[in-house]
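Tokens for chain A. Residues wanted.
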């Protein structure tokens, strides 16, 4: 059985790719760390990194172990933190996987209220698209996900926040589209588009309108919006994006909404039958109270 101590040592080596630097970060000697890594490789029965040169390189087995070790240590650290709660003090970590949506601003506002009453509760956010967020949920690396949907799968529990994100195009200021109040849905089929990798995932609204990879002129795709902005400014095409994700002030881009409106609901997603930590239970209570008051 692999010891967590050895996994922490290995993660330091994988991070630094240098035994001396890794040993310094762990406050142990280089010879001790080298011996521990040899012991780990003996247990596994395969080399974890290639020696020689100024910098180590991980083997395929080393890369695999790095990913798994990070997941294991995240779960252990989170569990230990959550178990520190007692009758008078609630402590622990809340981990949220979130897509790109301005609803995250409201969620952080709710958490600030939680932390004002329970300062030992900490939040950790992990950004990614819907596929990345649900993968983190399935592996137990996050407690909840903030998703734009409809994403309806039986293994999840959904809390509709009764908020909506609306699609439009990010266009250069000097384009003809920038002067329009809106862009009709049929125009999308004629324009060079830059779209999110996940835009058609679970999105029935687009499919009902006949919008897909075959009917649209897709010039490029993106994962998160930041890099896509440069594509618009370089006039590669127009970015299909949700409103309010990009601050257009001071940039040569404008957001133009789509007509008729293409809006998606926003959900908080957790695994069904999941047992929550005391910190998470408090956070969920605050969320439910906040959105009940705002309806």
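Reply:
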């Amino acid at each position: 059985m692999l010891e967590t101590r050895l996994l922490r040592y290995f993660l330091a080596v994988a991070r630094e790719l240098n035994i001396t630097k890794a040993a310094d970060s762990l406050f142990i000697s280089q010879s001790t760390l080298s011996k521990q890594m040899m012991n780990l490789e003996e247990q596994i029965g395969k080399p974890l990194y290639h020696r020689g040169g100024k910098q180590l390189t991980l083997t395929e087995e080393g890369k695999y172990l790095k990913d798994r070790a990070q997941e294991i240590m995240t779960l252990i650290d989170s569990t230990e933190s959550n178990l520190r709660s007692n009758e008078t003090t609630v402590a622990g970590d809340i981990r949220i996987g979130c897509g790109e949506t301005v609803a995250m601003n409201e969620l952080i506002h709710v958490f600030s209220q939680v932390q004002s009453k329970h300062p030992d509760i900490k939040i950790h956010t992990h950004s990614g698209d819907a596929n990345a967020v649900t993968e983190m949920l399935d592996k137990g690396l996050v407690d909840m996900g903030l998703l734009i949907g409809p994403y309806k799968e039986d293994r999840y529990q959904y809390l509709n926040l009764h908020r909506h994100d609306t699609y439009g195009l990010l266009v250069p200021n000097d384009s003809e589209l920038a002067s329009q109040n809106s862009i009709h849905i049929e125009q999308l089929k004629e324009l060079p588009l830059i779209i999110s990798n996940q835009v058609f995932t679970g999105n029935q609204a687009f499919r009902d309108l006949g919008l897909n990879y075959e009917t649209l002129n897709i010039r490029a795709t993106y994962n998160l919006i930041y890099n896509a902005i440069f594509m618009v400014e370089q006039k590669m095409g127009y970015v299909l994006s949700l409103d309010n994700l990009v601050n257009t002030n001071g940039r040569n881009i404008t957001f133009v909404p789509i007509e008729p409106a293409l809006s998606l609901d926003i959900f908080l997603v957790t695994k069904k039958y999941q047992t929550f930590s005391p910190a998470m239970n408090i956070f969920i209570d605050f969320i439910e109270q906040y959105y009940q008051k705002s309806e």
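The mean pLDDT is 84. The longest strand covers residues 156-172.
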